[in-house]
Every structure is written in structure tokens, then in C-alpha cells.
Amino acid sequence: MLIDTHTHLDDARYNDDRDAMIARAREAGVDAFVTIGCDFATSRAAVSLAERYPFVYASIGVHPHEAKHMQDDWYDEFRRLAKNKKVVAYGEIGLDYHYNHSSPKEQRDRFREQIQLARELALPVIIHTREAQEDTIGILKEEKASEVGGVLHCFSGDAWLAKEALDLGFYLSFSGIVTFQNAAMLREIAKHTPLDRLLIETDCPYLTPVPHRGKRNEPAYVAHVARQLASVHFGEADAIERIGQATTANAKRLFKIA
Fold first, then answer.
1. Which residues bind a divalent metal cation 1 (predicted)?
2. Which residues are annotated as a binding site for a divalent metal cation?
């Protein structure tokens, strides 16, 4: 049993075969999915999909790329969406200084506000951080995000970031990146991440794992992430069942999924 903790099931690339894609994942052993909000529209879409499928759960929030588009009245709408029992997290939120689609100040301001709202709603946070490690950790500490907990999704940072996040009580979620040939350092970090802090994800339709590089990613491929983690933790890919048990228990604990 596997849980793909970070998907974008509403993405238009699935419009022609969404049901079939989800069925393939279920056949591959994926028992549950969390589909992610990145702005107001995708948050509503995530909740709608969660209502449609009993094994799909939703997060709500605004990605740092979209921080400049946020309006203050969105927060009341997020409060309304959060009343839905299928909403299990707030995010993905955070900082991304690689592209700076929104200015760093806009990102930081909205990041703080959204952590505050997550605490108000008692929802764990899903964190996106890229080339902004120190600011991300600093804000998580200052805004007391550890009170609700959360996960650094699609973890691709260094050992310092991993330790800081773990010290905050956060989880680290690994994506298809961990299967890439040039990801030796990331695999070493994954190896030293305690089993009770590991999560797995696809971030589909992005970051397709080996051996499907070049194709559209989908939740069925989360098994390749689990297999890679089994290899680095236990020395054998056949230990995927142990990784599955651990990461599923972790996802249920963090997101309060029954």
C-alpha cells in the first residue's frame, strides 16, 4: 500500500484520461492521493476532486510563484474550503528564489500569512523551497509552524536543510528526483532520514522518475520512488513493502487520514 502525498490531479494534461490514470495508480498499489492547491482556482479544483473520489484528499493554498496575485479576501475563501473534511493540509506554500515569479518580499509576506492561517485552521503545511533554505527555515521557526507540523515536499536540499526540518518535527518527502543518476547526494540524505519521517510523492505531472523519464508523470510511478528508497535504506529494492508500510503510516499520521 502506497500513498502519493503530492499530486496535481487537476492538471490539464490529465483531462483526456484522468479516470484511467487514477485506475492505473490504484492497480499499482497506490491506495490514496493528496492533490495540491497552488492558487485559488487549483485549490477549489483539488477539493472538487477529493469530493469526487473517496481515496483522494486535498490541500489548499498559494504557491510562492503566485504570491503576487494573492488578494486578502482569498483567506476567507480558504477558510471556507478548509471546512471540507477532505482538506488535510495547507500548501503548497513557501519560497522560490530561483525564478522569482513573485518578488522575494511578496513571497515572504504571503508565506508568513499562510502559515498563520494554517495554524488557525490546525492544518499541517506543505512547503516548497528552492534556493531559499535559510529564509524558509527562519520563517517556519518565527511563525511557529512546528505547532501544526508539515513536510518539505519534493525534497532536494542539502544535509543542513534536512536536519533543520527534522529538528522542527517536519517530514521529508522524496520524489522522482531521488531516482535520477546525478542525485547521489540526495540518496545519501534519504538514507539518513529516519523511517518515521519519510514520505513519498510524484509531484505529477512533473519530475517523472527513472525509468519513465521523458514521459508525463503519473501517480502509478510513485512505486519507483518507494523502490529507490527501499534500496538506499535496506540495500534491496525488494524491501519496497517496508518502505510502503512506513511512508503510509507517516502520511496517515501527518494528514490524519483514516
1. 6, 8, 92, 203
2. 6, 8, 92, 128, 153, 203
What would you measure as the largest C-alpha separation in the chain, in angstroms? 51
* Assigned C-alpha cell, 41: 482556482
CATH ID of 2-255, from 3.20.20.140, 3.20.20.60, 3.30.1330.10, 3.40.50.300? 3.20.20.140
Task: Please tell me the predicted confidence (pLDDT) of residue 143.
Answer: 98
Per residue in 164-210, pLDDT (tens digit) is: 999 999 999 999 999 999 999 999 999 999 999 999 999 999 999 99
Enumerate the known binding-site residues: 6, 8, 92, 128, 153, 203
- Mean pLDDT throughout 100-108? 97
CA angle 125, 126, 130 (to 5 degrees): 125
Cell triple for residue 4? Answer: 502519493
